[in-house]
Amino acid sequence: MKLAQLLVLPAALLSAVLAIPEYSEHLHLRPLPNGYLYAGFNFTASTSLSAYESQHFRYFPRSLGQILQHSGTRELHLRFALGRWDDESWGSRPRDGKREGGTGVEIWAWLDSGGGKPAVEERWSSLVNSLSGLFCASLNFIDRTKTTRPVLSFEPEGTHRGGGGGMELLHGTLPHEVVCTENLTPYLKLLPCKGKAGISSLLDGHKVFDANWQTMSIDVRPVCHVGEECRLEIQQTVDIVLDIERSMRPRNDPIPRPRPVEELECDESKSYHASDSCYPRRKEGEMAWSLSKIFGTPVRGSCHVADGDECPDVSLEISPDRAVEVLHSGSNETLMSHAQNQRLRVYRLSDSGKYTDISLTQQIIQEAPHQEQPPLYASRQITGFGQERGGMHAVLHNPHTYPQRIVYLESLPWFLRPYMHTLKVLSHPTTSHDQPATPVKPDKMFYTPALDRKRGTHLELLLTIPAQSTVELTYDFDKAILRYTEYPPDANRGFDVAPAIIRVLPLNSNSTAGNGKTQDSYLRTTSLLLPLPTPDFSMPYNVIILTSTVIALGFGSIFNLLVRRFVLAEEVPRSALAVRVAGVMGKVRGWVRSLKGRMRGGGEGGGRAVGGAGEATGGAGGMNGISGVAESRKER
Amino acid sequence: MKEAQPILPAHGDPALTVVLHAAGSPDTNGVTSRLEPGESALHLGSGLRQAGEIADQIREITSPQQEALAYLLSGTPFAVTEHGALRATQNTWSAASLDARNTRAFKPSTTYHLSFSLFVSGNGPSAWAIEDALAAYMTPLLDALAGVSNFTVTTQVQLHASFSPSIAGPTFDEASGKWKLRKEDLSGFVNAAEWPLSPSIGEGSTINFVLYVPAPGHSPLVVADTGGTGWLVPQWGGVAILNLDEPTTPRKSTTDTDRTTLSAANLDEIILTFADQLTALIGLPSSPAGSLALRIAALQRERATALLLSTASTLGALSRLVHKLPNIPIPDTVATSVGALGNAQAASEASEKAFFEPSMVGQVYFPDEHKVAVYVPLLGPMGVPLVLAGVKELLGWYRGMREKVKRT
């Protein structure tokens, strides 16, 4: 792969000439409403393209670099995500949603398109298989049915020669994948400080995967600046939203328990407040928290390994009125701290300090929290009932006063068969409910129908969402019946459908519509669970068993006909067992009779007569016994 | 098919050249002959004795080679052969040394990936002049070995490399003022769980060379007993320790004002050590000493033999597997790849591939017991009356026999 030859300097970047350090890291912290904290980690490393091609790696991870070279990957985007970003209360997404992924694993990459379609598919398969091994994820299950080739939704971020000619975009998703610690460990190993120093020492699987929303990303792209050699940049980000109260639970007692009564904070102004009833008091102001309590450990050391790295490590986006205490050990050197603007405070970790901790106290701030409104709200559901068919229903809500152009991308599994003639896009204004819905005509539509077991559906719509209105997108689909062996072990759980990806296009600079963003942003809906008709998996065994029983029945009667001799009932000799049983029965009968006789005799006479009677019955008993034996002999 | 073809280094130079040329000097009237490129030159006075001498010398040079080939073949059906030259070696000392050489060396392969890694226990040094050092000391050797295998080179720097928890760690020796690493810890020194030493992608084995820079608090770090700073891990690679603050190398440290970069001067000895380890790891014979070309030619012959042997043995194993597990399906690809015995190397690779064909593995775990279990509802009701009837018939026959005996 001759990347250097394929790269040219873009005109857009000619102005910005900045010496980028070979490695830098940054942590951004921002408290969110209702006791949440957003923490965004960013690790950026780069290498010159000549060093990359001759395989001399310094801060760029060798394991990943070799995979990219082997598979002819020009630009890679990999996402591991969990949870849901609550944009109703948390506002717009961090990094404009560009470093965010759909639930599970998502990957898209631009590959060398040389050698035609089979060669590209070969490279794609080699890429996902190698990454699967590197990140301990099931990426190798991204086969042709889970791969799409979006047209409008993604654009290369790096600077490629000829505006991105000679390369092809492939996109794959694994919504079922559960992201966990085994993915974080190899992720941290790619970093120069490996989670042992600097801000990466805060990343601990227990905390990261306990978050309400979490996304890990890896982005590799070539970056060129004028007057400098082109570089290959790897950007790793971890964005998490933590519940402050939940994260500050002490580590030695991680099980959530009800609080003791003394610790409950009750609203005593309520009329029903009593010793046995408590109305929880509303939390006022901002919560107290510190890095060491939330992440379980303070920042260990620093990771200033590159020359010319003077960037601040930690930035804190809080109200200017809040008091912040910075604790550090090891030296008296104070941390660099300066306010770039009112809300942002930045810190640089000291090189000699062993531990650094940032702690904030509880404080009541009058100022309303600054919240940026997201460009769009989106949600998607499956409608209908039964196991045969259903419908998809996506709701896109534009809260702004200007219309927005979006690209709506869906990649559906092949066993969900949409009917495109039922596709309806209707728009309702949110300002007045009386107006009837008006249909919206998509500006462009790209649709690749599914092929059973070979290819999934790819649907891409270029839409304009009118100002302050809600657009509903609906279509019907059929559910396919899978083959017996195609069901996973937990077939009744349902099948995951990858989230829809929505790209909000930037507004034209000459448009007078409003103050929209000049950069595009992304958002994703949640993934869906699609219940498919599941067969009774014991059925083949039931059939085998039933057939076996019928055959055995037939066999039994024929076998009896062949083997048995048929005689009259009188001719049948009595078997030894029957005779013995009859003998025992006779004895028992005799003994019972004698007992009865004795009882009767005892009741009639008195005094001496009792003995006689007793003897008489005894005799009778004896007689009976003899007759029983005789009988049995006769029978024999 | 480089290996199976004779015996010349691929770039066309003959391995052994006998140069006979008239010496112009008046004091000797004979001819000077010397073996080239071997160092063992002989200067003889008389021209007539020379032919015999040269023949002797060639025999001497090739005899370890003979032993090596005989050693390779010993224990295989090919060992019994009419060629007297390939009789198993009687020399136990040379057998033991060949054994040691074989256990150290990698499996023969067409491609080797060399991975040079700098592991630093702390924050720095975070760069090394590895490109210059490799160009100076490693590239010439790799060029010479190009006829044996292809080599790819990658380098990496890894900071914050900690010791493996499985080893006891170095202990400070007051007497010498050095940190000592116990000999038992050498095998576990490489922290395989944490150090990113994943093999390179693609066919072929990866040979790892690790340069470890201990923390200033643990420096100087040496191996106990020997006091050395480098060792070889059989079939894996080589490890070297670089003590930066060692008082014996102050001139190197002082020139290197930038503490974050290891200069090529720091690295030259280490790269030479690695080069020496590399020859051992790819199984280059140690004799005839002094002539690299002859050693490489010998290695090529051994490679050809070993590849043929491994092909035969893998095919044998596949055949045994197929006989042992009759209910695994054999895909057509396996049949065709077995047929591809065109040349030793291709067949070797193809048979290895066939042996590990993934589609065959799944069926191994469907045992016959399961089939029986599913058909028990059929076999049970059919079997029980059959067995009972059989027992009844036997009893009847037995009784009939007894009555016959009583009657007579």
TrEMBL record, chain A:
Keywords: Membrane, Signal, Transmembrane, Transmembrane helix
UniProt keyword Ribosomal protein, yes or no: no
Gene: GPI16
Signal peptide coordinates: 1-19
Stretches that traverse the bilayer: 541-563
Domain of life: Eukaryota
The keyword Transmembrane helix is annotated on this UniProt entry: yes
Protein name: Subunit of the glycosylphosphatidylinositol transamidase complex-like protein
Species assigned in the record: Rachicladosporium monterosium
UniProtKB/TrEMBL annotation, chain B:
Membrane topology, record value: Multi-pass membrane protein
Alphabetical list of InterPro entries matching this protein: PtdIno-glycan_biosynth_class_S (IPR019540)
Keyword entries, A-Z: Endoplasmic reticulum, Glycoprotein, GPI-anchor biosynthesis, Membrane, Transmembrane, Transmembrane helix
Pathway stated in the Swiss-Prot or TrEMBL entry: Glycolipid biosynthesis; glycosylphosphatidylinositol-anchor biosynthesis
Organism of provenance: Rachicladosporium monterosium
Endoplasmic reticulum is among the record's keywords: yes
Chief location category: endoplasmic reticulum
Domain of life: Eukaryota
Pfam families (UniProt xref): PIG-S
Subcellular location: Endoplasmic reticulum membrane
Protein name listed in UniProt: GPI transamidase component
Keyword Glycoprotein part of the UniProt annotation: yes
Coiled coil: none
Recorded family membership: Belongs to the PIGS family.
